[in-house]
Amino acid sequence: MRSLDRRLMLTTTIGGAAALAIAPALAQTQAPATAPANTEWPTYGADLNSTRYMPLDQINESNFNKLEVAWTFKTENLGGRPEYILQCTPLLIQGRLYATAGSRRDVVCLDAGTGELLWMHRMDEGRRATNAPRQLSGRGVSYWSDGANERILYVTIGYRLVSLDAKTGLIDESFGDKGIVDLKTQIDQNLDPETADIGLHTAPLVVNDTIVIGAAHTAGNTPKIIRNARGYVRGFDVKTGRRKWIFHTIPHKGEFGYDTWAPGTAEMAGNTGAWAQMSADPELGLVYFGVEMPTGDQMGFYRPGNNLFAESIVAVDIETGLRKWHYQMIHHGLWDYDVPCAPILCDIPHNGRIVKAIAQPTKQSFIYVLDRATGKPVWPIPEKKVIPGDVPGEWYSPTQPFPSKPPAFDKQGITRDDLIDWTPELRKKAEEVASHYVMAPMYTAPIMAKKGGPYGVLNLPGYIGGINWPGASYDPENHTVYTYSQTNLLTLGIIIPNPDKKMGEFDYVHVNPPADSPDFQPGNTSVDGLPLIKPPYGRITATNLAKGTQDWQVAHGETPDAIRNHPALKGIKIPRTGMSGKVGPLATKSLVICGDPDTYTDEQGRLAARLRAYSKADGREVGAVFLPAPQSGSPMTYMHNGKQHILLAVGGRGQKAQFMAFKLP
Questions:
Q1: pTM of model > 0.85
Q2: How many CB atoms are located within 10 Å of the residue 156 CB?
């Protein structure tokens, strides 16, 4: 941005919110250089299939280590305070990058070659944003064009849908109410505009002329209220903002799925939003989204039954929102295994034919592979018995679906053999810690905490995964899904009474740790600061969907300082453990690229992270370059002026967020 005196600055107030756009004066606007064909990144997941794949190979195994920083864009001055965890993946359209950034969730347009700010848009929503359940910059924007007009769509912190002119950043006055649709209205429930517990941090999905919007709520395992806002999914006209349809993720009486709730309980339930990114198949005319749990997470006693459409993949008609099919991956969930990321749409060879498939990676480390036209499993998914809990009044599903193929991409369940054994002393201490809990298979239900133990159930994966919101990448040429997952043990399953309702409206609540254990801290499942279970703690896995098998798996990230510098391990050589965190990979023609989810002290004494490249053929690490902070937003790649760029967001642990672009010299 050369100077503000050559910019057009507009401030408007719409619905009580001040909106500001800083854009090039129209007479001064120059069209950016057109990017080479087939190198744009037009949606959050690269395409509507959510593959996060681009078949570029200028950056490859032979030169990855030569990458240099092309430019950076720091976000600390966007919003009233700096942001440290920037989760956005920008879009690339005709040489321009579009992103949300900063603690106020400003929208910025950047030059793809230099990172120069071309325009920005901001809204100050006051108390509506302050009270919102999903804060900060969110995960990005969406793009639409009919050839003559170009629009950028995003959802504000305060849950408003905004349409901007992609060239200038100015509000599209013909959309909604002067450019804005209030998403707390037209939602088939009465919501307080300032305090309702509903919002969204993902980018909208735009298919043809329809914008599809989900919902998110306050995160946490101990909600304060039972009758929370409901996260219905809606479709809006991209030109006018008119609501086209609504899908009730908690069915109304008379609708399909209502009978999977005990009488009267569907009317009490809340949440059940579609907070992850979505995918779409315009040829089939379908949108696919995953649905989270109803209010209560581990406390399901107010919602007996299988609870459709919770923890399901749902396919609806793009134009009408009518359900085409659904598949419930967990019945009456009690583990907070929400559907965390976009499903991958892929055409895979199977039994002599090509199947139009959908592959949904999950927190529990399964990939559910279904026919995306019908919802039928590609490989059998049998129901298996699971272990119930003992919470008074709870309803337990006797079985859960277990995919037979492909194999899980991370550890599921815990036994004594999973405890660390680097030394006999550490194994003994690990067994002592574990003795206070139930070690059991996945889907063992939460139990009441008991004085003296067991305090609860050790769950692996924990409720943050496995995989999480960054999702996976997919190469359509070799039919392979690449996942980053974390092996992160959590004590999900500690339930205590709440008779005085100090911890919300529920009679029983999840806590960590229990209040009756002053001498032992359950929930702190560590051994003198070391993890209770064996590594790797972060891993990248290549899963071949043509065969239903895994091609390779490697530890991702260095061994954390707290482990390699631990006095109990002095003189003991342990393999690289990898790191826990929430990151997602990028697939190119020959590489899988992913940044470290945390920092470590490198050979120069710097607190650093690395952007790493692995061979798609065998998982060998073939290159790594320095990052000043961990990866916080999933990477993307594009060509600009003959140079391939790799762009990602970094930040965290006191390190202010920024976008970093790399290219070869």
A1: yes
A2: 25
